Amino acid sequence: MAAQGRGSAAGGNMAVVVGLVLLLCVLLQASVAESAVFNVGDRGGWSFNTNSWPAGKRFKVGDVLVFKYDATAHDVVAVSAAGYKACAKPASGAKVYKSGADRVTLARGTNYFICSVPGHCQSGMKIAVTAA
Questions:
Q1: 48-104, pLDDT tens digit by residue?
Q2: If 78 and its partner were Cys, which of 7, 87, 95, 121 is the partner (CB 3.0–4.6 Å)?
Q3: Region for 41 from its dihedrals, namely left if φ exceeds 0, alpha if ψ lies in -120 to 50, beta otherwise
Q4: Quick one: which of 125, 130, 78, 69 has its CA closest to 101?
């Protein structure tokens, strides 16, 4: 009879472990579900005069920006505030996206993006997105 008692306790411990694993899965799923996906430029995509697109939108850390564009004509470059203001791609170390369907997860603070094709950033192909 003593063996049955121990077996029941072991079964109970296993149930607790399984319960904790399920709870963890639910919590992780809830965190992922809170992230939003935004298509930069909406239907027009990543294009000229996109710089006003973020106005009125609320972004959170972990939200995803989707840049859709003609990869033969444009790119997306993550830059600093100075690079954004000057429409200048850093000489090295910048993250450059070139697929035409890039997904970028927002970090806390202001995230800056430009098109580095000459003249495009100056024509409004840049955005500054602040994630809280």
A1: 999 999 999 999 999 999 999 999 999 999 999 999 999 999 988 899 999 999 999
A2: 95
A3: left
A4: 69
